[in-house]
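1st attempt posting a full record on here, be nice pls
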Amino acid sequence: MLLRSAPDSSPNDVTTRELLKETEAMARDSGLFGLPRAPIGQALNSPGPQTPEFYLALTAQFYREGRYVESIFACRRALDLRPGYAEAWNNIGAAYNKLGRYEEAAAACEQALLYKPDFELARINLQYAREKIKTSGR
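the predicted structure (as tokens):
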């Protein structure tokens, strides 16, 4: 677990770039680009003035619906607007946990904790991912 002070607020560190690249590939592979689902999916591509909070609300809705790749993609949009948004990083970690991608989940939760070291939910999601990594032998 990384508990150092948060890096500058641009997504330039290697972990951030890798996660964002992977999320984009997952969204493309799942057909999200050009095929939004109504009504929430349409909001992802709407030209209106969205905020990081708007995208975080979308990610929560996608997560509740079991649409984890879309949840990650919505978080990515929030991070485009606010790279240090700990809640979005945590939600990425939670969605990756649901997808069984525990290494990515741990990396995302570590990012959340970089920006908000006392974020208990991110700590819980990180612990869950690490336990799954340990028990699966990865």
